[in-house]
Design goal:
By secondary structure, the chain is an all-alpha fold. It has five helices and no strands.
């Protein structure tokens, strides 16, 4: 069984993951409103992934005999100037998530909570991928900034992302 401090920290992260899902859903909606169906699809997949992350944390708490505690979620931003701003905000958010995961891992190490450390390895690796995906999209969109045709192609490329 994990400590009350660790359980509270993981519960906080569950709520952060659900906020992340709402943020990406807001981005998907705004992209669709702007006519970028590919990007809307990319962010919809991201929305689903973040829900899965929250559920993964919740399952871990339940397996540890700890209650999952959900809190109210703040509404995310609803509009962006364009796709580049969306992905820059997504990258900034993912960097915050990485810091939070690292804090959880530091707590697990301090408490000699080997089970939590083991569980968090998956999330540490996932954050490397999350930041890289956003960075790649930013690079592509920066290269497309001066051309509507290139932006159209970037949106089509982003739309090729598939659910895992």
């Amino acid at each position: 069984m994990i400590s009350k401090k660790m359980a509270k920290a993981i519960n906080t992260q569950i709520n952060r993951e659900f906020y992340s899902a709402f943020l990406y859903l807001a981005m998907a909606n705004d992209a669709m409103d702007k006519g970028f169906k590919g990007t809307a699809g990319w962010f919809t997949i991201q929305f689903k992934e973040e829900q899965e992350h929250a559920l993964r944390f919740a399952k871990y708490l339940q397996e540890q005999g700890t209650k999952v505690e959900l809190d109210d979620l703040a509404a995310p931003k609803a509009e962006w100037k364009g796709l580049l701003e969306m992905f820059k905000d997504a990258l900034a958010h993912e960097k915050k998530v990485t810091a939070w995961i690292n804090e959880l891992n530091a707590l697990a190490i301090a408490e000699k909570d080997y089970a939590s450390q083991n569980m968090l390895v998956w999330f540490i690796n996932e954050q490397i991928e999350e930041e890289a995906n956003c960075t790649d999209a930013i690079w592509m969109l920066e290269m497309s900034a001066d051309s509507k045709g290139a932006l159209f192609m970037a949106d089509k490329t982003l739309g090729k992302r598939k659910d895992d």
